[in-house]
């Protein structure tokens, strides 16, 4: 048996064909671009997202034939809004990184709504989540209200959009993991909440039907891709949730860290936790047995910091920047805070701006390069520490995935900054394997998952680690965040 796992991310879309032994039989990829039309705005073409999915499906089917089922893992908190009659988006997809609703979110917090929203969703009011984005669409895209009055408006995250397209509009649904990130979903009763909609000023009757992550979401329609009609979609999860599942984490104590454009750290909790330290309570996944809860911290700019700095310094790419960074033993006192789209968890400061500090006449490009990679590790350490405070003890280890987890230099820096082991997988497509395993479970097959391939143990002394963490926290404050 074979499952086609679609891993739709911010920078690219992948299709991975997986067999019931967890072996990757084939893969295909298509790049995507993000537009930044104004400071703080970030958006993508929803049609380009769909076209990229059609492309990678076609590559796999033409070379490997038709799979038995489909699983979807997707970039989260990205909002797609479309016309059910034409199946056309009515505006660009407002991606998770977009901060255009920062002022409206601040106003809702000032009006005293944050506690009520956190109680229902586990999420503090923030532009990251789609609720305020949907309010922006209703305020700025006239077509939205007209379509809603006609009952033709559809809004959802990327999983919902892809399912709609794959089924030619026959299925309008989402899973509980994606729904839990919309900030309009009550994660205790597992329903979209009209009360939350009133807080944000949006209707909830244009949102998809939520289901368990291992549901039968629909079947492919004829003619929309190279797949024939009738291939079932048997699993959907947000990409970070799928990665946690793909690592085989099934109990509290370990943290999954994804190193991509941004970073997501997630750890399982016995029940839903309302964080007191800047994190989010969320649903990791759900099955017929019910939801599995997690704590999560989202970093807005993570591995993207290396791409940004490589371009700024005229270095070929992040790999070359990493090589340059390793020519010096430390940063020489230089600290880079990549608050290039504000600061995410655990600080949540939309007004923060990127900062390069600590330079002297002896500073070289190599020191700046090293400071960039240390910044990625420091941001992860901030979330890791917050998780420890929320659950009452430090997590045991980190399971790392995402493109930048393949950089041994960064992973060693990360272990040094955390003071605990960092384990990486030998397979880059860990999120795709996770959603494939979920789909196989729906078929009654227990697909094996890969064991960690590499373990990085900390080398820094506790005193040096504490000194570097203190210097980082001071730089964070200078970037605009006030504890």
UniProtKB/TrEMBL annotation:
Residues 256-440 form the Carbohydrate kinase FGGY C-terminal domain. Keywords: ATP-binding, Kinase, Nucleotide-binding, Transferase. Residues 3-246 form the Carbohydrate kinase FGGY N-terminal domain. Belongs to the FGGY kinase family. The keyword Kinase applies. InterPro entries: ATPase_NBD, Carb_kinase_FGGY, Carb_kinase_FGGY_CS, FGGY_C, FGGY_N. This is ATP:glycerol 3-phosphotransferase. It comes from the Bacteria. The keyword Nucleotide-binding applies. It comes from Roseinatronobacter alkalisoli. GO terms for molecular function: kinase activity.
